[in-house]
Design brief:
globular, 10 helices, binds S-adenosylmethionine, Rossmann fold, 7-stranded mixed beta sheet, 19% strand, 46% helix, single chain, alpha/beta, 237 residues
């Protein structure tokens, strides 16, 4: 039987081209991506990992922050979206796109293995970014815990996710958002039939952002795009 992860890969694989367009062209999205990259608190020469990087829309903003001496690693488990991410970042030799699971990211091995990510020494990961991903993970808070452990003391974890707006003008915005979520959620048995997809998504997103706030000192806590996108950044003690 197909798992949730199989369905997600099949869904994003089939819609990679359309997703890429939405990921880059939605009004307000470039500003959000730039802000998310800034919240990672990167210095030139740093190493940043993007979990579930999709077609790579955040990667140029991260590359801009770490500069030519830094390292950007994008991880995703869907091959067709990765191919788009690779093509979009082919001009940068310090942006690496790896196929892997964001809940078991192949990062340490890649950093230790000169052939995996050339030009890096093993002084660890400075920041993790995950945009529009945690809602797809079975244990979203557990994944945030692992990412906090990966960056360690003084590292930064940043999450951005679309969830129902809490603004005063929320009802029409939320109605549109609910329709988008129903249409864009991979059709797994669990999400479609056991609970309303947007509520299940909201629960996972709430749990992930709450865990980051518990674990880290806030460096960003804001909403974007009519209050529908929440951006939370935290620095580990
Ligand atoms: C909604 S897209 C977001 C892509 C990108 N972060 C962005 O902001 O445009 C979600 C992506 O997460 C990936 N994904 C979901 N669960 C994953 C997992 N466990 N490991 C790796 N990638 C995952 C999917 O393949 C898809 O490309």
């Amino acid at each position: 039987m197909a798992t949730e992860s199989d369905s997600a890969q099949e869904f994003y694989g089939r819609w990679a081209r359309l997703y890429d367009l939405i990921a880059r062209r939605t009004p307000g999205i470039a500003r959000l991506r730039k802000r998310a990259a800034a919240a990672c608190r990167l210095e030139p020469g740093d190493t940043v990992v993007e979990m579930g990087c999709g077609t790579g829309a955040n990667l140029p903003f991260l590359r801009e922050r770490v500069g030519p001496a830094g390292t950007v690693i994008g991880i995703d488990f869907t091959r067709p979206v990765l191919e788009r991410a690779r093509a979009a970042t082919a001009a940068y030799d310090n942006v690496h796109v790896l196929q892997g699971d964001a809940t078991q990211p192949p990062v340490r091995a890649a950093l230790e293995d000169d052939e995996g990510v050339p030009g890096t020494d093993d002084d660890g990961v400075d920041a993790v970014l995950a945009t529009f991903v945690v809602g797809m993970l079975e244990d979203s808070a557990g994944a945030v815990d692992d990412w906090c452990d990966l960056v360690g003391s003084d590292g930064t974890v940043v999450l951005a996710n679309a969830a129902r707006s809490r603004e005063w003008y929320a009802p029409p915005v939320n109605a549109v958002f609910r329709a988008i979520v129903v249409l864009s959620t991979p059709p797994t048995m669990q999400l479609r039939y056991e609970s309303d997809p947007h509520i299940r998504l909201d629960e996972k997103i709430d749990a992930a952002h709450a865990r980051l706030r518990e674990r880290a000192v806030a460096v960003a806590d804001e909403t974007h795009i009519f209050g529908v996108v929440r951006l939370t950044g935290g620095r580990l003690d």
